[in-house]
Write a structure and sequence with these properties.
- The protein is mainly β.
- It has a single domain, classed as Archaeosine Trna-guanine Transglycosylase, Chain: A, domain 4.
- Helices cover 0% and strands 34% of the residues.
- The chain has no helices and nine strands.
- The strands form three sheets. The chain has a three-stranded mixed sheet, with no helix packed on it.
């Protein structure tokens, strides 16, 4: 079984840090969660993320205990999670305004 790394129990994605994952592989978790097993629905390159549970469109994608973006479409457990189905919310000056309404 392939393993992905999970830092926080709130994470809904795991990162392929040991090796790439092939479609059809059973994928378990190491780190903060060790009880989740999903079947890969796509190839997951090294360093990329796999959904550990269903993430509905518009929901927050959690990695390392932090929000890294919002799902732009429904993401099923086992799906590849990357820029094709997540809109980042990190480093987005257009998503932040100070108390005077001025964007950073």
């Amino acid at each position: 079984m392939k393993k992905v790394f999970v830092i926080d129990e709130k994470d809904n994605v795991g990162t392929a840090v040991l090796e790439p994952i092939k479609v059809g592989d059973d994928v378990g978790t190491n780190g903060a969660l060790t009880s989740i097993v999903v079947k890969a629905k796509a190839d997951i390159p090294f360093g990329h993320k796999i959904a550990l549970r269903d993430i509905p469109k518009g929901s927050i994608v959690m990695k390392y205990g932090l929000s890294i973006g919002n799902a732009t479409q429904d993401i099923k457990a086992g799906d590849h999670v990357h820029i094709h189905n997540v809109e980042s919310n990190r480093g987005r000056g257009d998503k932040f305004a100070d108390s005077k309404g001025v964007s950073a």
